[in-house]
Write a structure and sequence with these properties.
With 364 residues, the chain is an alpha+beta fold. It has helices at 43-51, 93-103, 108-121, 138-151, 168-185, 196-202, 220-225, 230-235, and strands spanning 3-14, 17-28, 32-36, 58-63, 66-67, 78-81, 156-160, 188-192, 205-210, 213-218, 240-250, 253-257, 261-263, 267-269, 280-286, 292-293, 302-313, 317-324, 329-335, 347-352, 358-360. The chain is elongated. It binds adenosine-5'-triphosphate.
Length: 364
Amino acid sequence: MTAILDIQDVRKSYGAHQALKGVSLSVSEGEFIALVGPSGCGKTTLLKQIAGFEEPDQGRIAIAGADMAGVPAAKRPTSMVFQRLALFPHMTVAENVGFPLKLRKTQPGEIRKRVGQMIELMQLKTDYLTRFPRQLSGGEQQRVALARSMVSEPKLLLLDEPLSALDVKLKKVLQAELKRLHRSVGVTFVHVTHDLEEAMMLADRICVMRDGAILQLGTPADIYYRPAGSFVAGFIGETNLMPIKVTARDKSGLVYRSADIADIDGRIASDFVADGVGQGDALLMLRPELLRVLGPEEKAEGIIGAEVTEMFGKGGTVQYRARTRGGQNLVVEIPGTSSLPMRIGDKVRLGFAKKDIYVFGPGA
Ligand code: ATP
C-alpha cells in the first residue's frame, strides 16, 4: 500500500524541552490511526508538525510523496479538527462549512453544492444551514466542524481529541459517526484521543507514545495482547503482570519458574514471548478476562492460587481483586452469570491457557 504520510525522525524542542525525540511513522492511504499516550507525551505537537502549524527542528514529513518542508499549513492537503470548537460564531452553518472553499476562491454555486453534500454526509438537517453555531447542540456543532474540515477534500484529516468535550452518550454517537465517515469517504485519519476504548473501537492501528517517542505501533489486538512492554500493557486496559524467572531460552521458547504459578510443563512457546527476552527476570502478562475460576477438581495449563480481597460489579461482568501467596495482586474479570461466583475471603484457583499469555522483558 502507498504511504500517504511518511514521517522520518522528526524532532521538535520548545526551549530546553524535547517534545518529539525522533518520531518515525508511516501511514497508508485510507488508514485510521489513533495516537494515544499520557498527557504531554507529544501527540498534539506531532499533529501540528503534520498540519504545518509548526516546522520540525529536524526530520522529514512527506504527504502523498511530497516533502512538506516549508509548505505552509494552508497549502497542505490536510485538515485539522480541534478539541475546542473553532466555528466562527458570527457565521451561519453554511458559511462556516463553506469557509475553506471561499478561501480557495471556489465559485459560489460549487460552494453551495459541496456544503449541501457535507451536511448530508454528516447527517445534519438542511434547515440548520441558516442557523448560527450558538443555535446548535455541542454534538451538532462538532459535526459542523467535521463537515468544514472535510469540505476541501483533504488527503489527511487530523483530529485532536474532537470528541473529548462531549458527554458520554453523545460521544458514543459521534464515535460511530466518525467510523461511518471514515468508511464512506476513504480519507486517512490521524486521531488523537485520551479514550483508549475509542482508540480500540475506531483505529486500524494504534500508535502509543510516551515522552516524545513512539513506544509501539500496531493493530488494537497487537497492542492489547502483544504489548511491547509493561508501560503499553498497563496503559491499554487493566492487566496482570506476574514476575517470572526465565531459566532457559532458545528458538522454540523458554523455560521458567514462578513462585505463584503452577504450570503444566513450565515452558512457554516462542509465539508468546516478545523478542529480546533472555534468561533472567521477565514479566508474564495475563489480561483479567482471560483468567477463569476453576472448580475443585478442574485442571488448567497454568494455575494461580489466590485469595479474593475485593469485588466490584460492572454490569455484565464482575471484577475481583485477589492476592497470591507471593503477595502479587491480581485483577480477574468474569461474567456476572458465572456458575463459580467468588466471595471476599475465598481461596480460589485461577486457571489460564498458555495461548492467552504473553511474556516480555522487565525493562520495556
Ligand atoms: P495532552 O494529551 O495533554 O494534550 P499532548 O501529548 O498532546 O498532551 P503536547 O501538547 O504535544 O502534548 O505537548 C508536549 C510537551 O511539549 C508538553 O510538555 C508541553 O508542555 C510542551 N509544549 C507544547 N507546546 C509548547 C509550546 N508552544 N511552548 C512550550 N512548550 C510546549
